[in-house]
Amino acid sequence: FGATGIYKTYMFGSPSIIVCKPETCRRVLTDDQNFKLGYPKAVKVLTGRRSFHSISNAEHKRLRRLTAAPITGSEALSMYVPGIEENIVASLEEWSSSDQPVEFLTGMKKVTFKIITNIFFGLDQVDFNFKTMEILYGDLARGMKSAPINFPGFTFHRGVKARRELIKILQAVVDERKALKGRNGSITRKNMLDMLMEVEDEDKRKLEEEDIIDILLMYLLAGHETSAHGTMWAALYLHEHPDILQKAKEEQEEIIRRRPATQSGLTLKEIRQSQYLTRVVDETLRRISLSFAVFREAKADVNVN
Within 10 A of 184 (CB to CB), how many other CB atoms are there? Predict the structure, then answer.
């Protein structure tokens, strides 16, 4: 459609309009009256009936409200920081002592996956086989970008099988956690799974078990892929721009110099003081695309531009 940043194509077997310019994207993404979530069938099936990709706008907002505090609330973030720092430091020390080259993206996938499983399930409480999970989540991710043909030999079919296996693994973790709570009555050191099982909306409704399983499946996929790729690109950009790396490093050194003698590790307060490093992260995310598209479906004919 000319130089408008809008063009027509077919995606996943459906006629689609691709929108590129920021102002047009903002118009579509903020217009709930004319647009609704419209992810491809493969994404809806493989992320689950109760995932953020498949539910109504009202239910989407409800789940966002319920999961915001356990996932991004200040109390939750403060609780996660020590474990994240411990994992990163241990991994860097392991890599630096190796006499073999380190495949950075693969290494970061292992680190970020371990971090996110610790956040969701508790430090060292769940022993996942990383190689198995990597294969299953790889099949799931590829299936989400394929034609939904559920027949042996097709990518989508492998994705369906991977989802089935992942649900078995996650269901076993949830069942074990419920049994532990039943035996002990209450748990002092809570993880994100505990909080998701306890959180209530304004009508005192808790998340259903299917909600929890689909949320776990979705966030573990995000933690396995996007965090590792984002870290890789940030490292590449900083390597290509040593002046920016130096400024970011100086900011961190200054924050550490101001640290009280009684404090031994990183805190959420220090992270929030990292203004220059935050801009580095934001610019990295602006320049790269961790998700190739955000999908909306028009409820009616709409004129854009």
Answer: 9
Residues paired with 68 in a beta bridge: none
Structure tokens at 86: 């411990």
Name residue 272's amino acid: R
Query: What global pTM score does this model have?
Result: 0.80
Cβ–Cβ < 8 Å for 170, 213: yes
Is residue 52 pLDDT above 70, yes or no? no
> 66: part of which helix (H) or strand (E)?
helix 57-72
Mean pLDDT of 225-249: 95
Give the DSSP H/E element, type plus range, for residue 117: helix 104-121
Strands 6-11 and 14-19: antiparallel
Which residues, including other chains, have CB under 8 Å from residue 214's CB and lie 6 or more apart?
47, 48, 49, 50, 51
User: Can you give the length of the chain in residues?
Assistant: 305
Contact at 8 Å (CB) between 120 and 216?
A: yes
CB 51 within 8 A of CB 215: yes
CATH of domain 40-241: 1.10.630.10
Alpha-carbon dihedral of residues 100, 101, 102, 103, nearest 10 degrees? -130
pLDDT, greater one: 250 or 188: 250
Range 126-131 contact pairs with CB under 8 angstroms and sequence separation of 24 or more: 126/173, 128/169
Is residue 39 exposed (0-12), middle (13-18) or buried (19+ Cβ within 10 Å)?
buried
pLDDT score for 55:
66
Separation of alpha carbons 84 and 231, rounded Å: 14
